[in-house]
Amino acid sequence: xxxxxxxxxxxFLILMxxxxxxxxxFRSTVIPSFFLVWLLILAWEENTEIALLMAFIxxxxxxxxxxxxxxxxxxxxxxxxxINCFLKIxxxxxxxxxxFIFSIVYFLMGLFKYPDGFLWSPKAxxxxxxxxxxxxxxxxxxxxxGMKRLRxxxxxxxEFLSI
Amino acid sequence: xxxxxxxEIIFVIGLFLSVMIVRHHSHRRVYNIENSQGxxxxxxxxxxxxxxxxxxxxxxxxxxxxxxLKKKVIVGQIVSIKPIIFPAEIIINKGRNNGVRExxxxxxxxxxxxxxxxxxxQDSAFVKTxxxxxxxxxxxxxxxxxxxxxxxxxxxxxxxxxxxxxSNVKEGDKVITSGxxxxxxxxxxxxxxxxxxxxxxxxxxNILVKPFSCISAVEEVLISE
Lengths: 163, 225
What we know:
By secondary structure, chain A is mainly α. Chain A has helices at 3-25, 34-44, 48-66, 72-84, 92-110, 122-162; strands at residues 112-113, 117-118. The model of chain A has no long low-confidence stretch (mean pLDDT 88). In chain B, a hairpin with a 4-residue loop joins strand 4 (113-120) and strand 5. Chain B is α+β, with helices and mostly antiparallel strands. Chain B is built from 3 helices and 12 strands. In chain B, the strands form 2 sheets. Chain B has a 6-stranded antiparallel β-barrel with strand order 1-2-5-4-3-12. In chain B, strands 6-7-8-11-10-9 form a 6-stranded antiparallel beta barrel. The chains are: A mainly alpha, B alpha+beta. At the A-B interface, helix 3, helix 4, strand 2 and helix 6 of A face helix 1 and strand 1 of B.
């Protein structure tokens, strides 16, 4: 099987495990979205087609594990990833800022319902979106480091096997 | 030619599929299929089955002695919540076919208020919960018998409006439905007062209420008029 696909599946499974763990055992009012952060990094690394495909799959997975409205997270993920396909963010500090901004966008989109408007009051949205974006930024830093390590491990393995 | 627009094609197909899933999930008979499949899986999970039996038995016992509710009570299950914390909107697996109608009240099995039915489909219904910013409930403070309006949206607490500043209300006082609105029966417990602040700009107090029902943890709900 293609090495790239194996790495992608491996990353997806690790993040799904983390997401399920945090959804069930993380005693906090706000839970970070590992999938969102991962998709943003995928899109910035120019894996745009894969990122879009994974946006649909992870969106459905997220709704399934979080008891959400099926399909809504897929729509939000797809829109955010599509916008990010045109942004080429390379260095870590800029990526953290990007994750922060798009986490707020994700939070706002998740709380919007046509034609009623936002489901919470502006004050509550402001407070919790900032908290969510902050948590995602921290998660983003660790996911990027983890992705680098995974890639390095596969590179080392390949070099070792070629010897 | 098509290869040049592969990104846009994946995006449009993904979006189309997602929209179709949203529509299908909220409007159609998907729950019946889902539930019948779920039952088969659940039979192998005995602990879950026992816990569900206990919960349903509690509801059945409660239904025998629900003096607050004059008409029939429908038991439903929560299928989806939005957002996952302090849900402002939920979908239940009972709809028009089960006798659910718009504006019916929804309670937890402990008889705490959860919300009100807003949209009804064949086998499902949308519930606007107490956390929704559009929710406004006519309530009474059980100790002082003063009437106020409880508003959602100020997460994680609810805001109680129009209680006069000279009121004797205390923290810990219960808030119950007044029965003056067409949507909620009288005497249903909603929450307890956790914070009272004087407002110098108006003649009313700023009161925050903690709702009794933890909607994220609720699985079965009661629907009634």
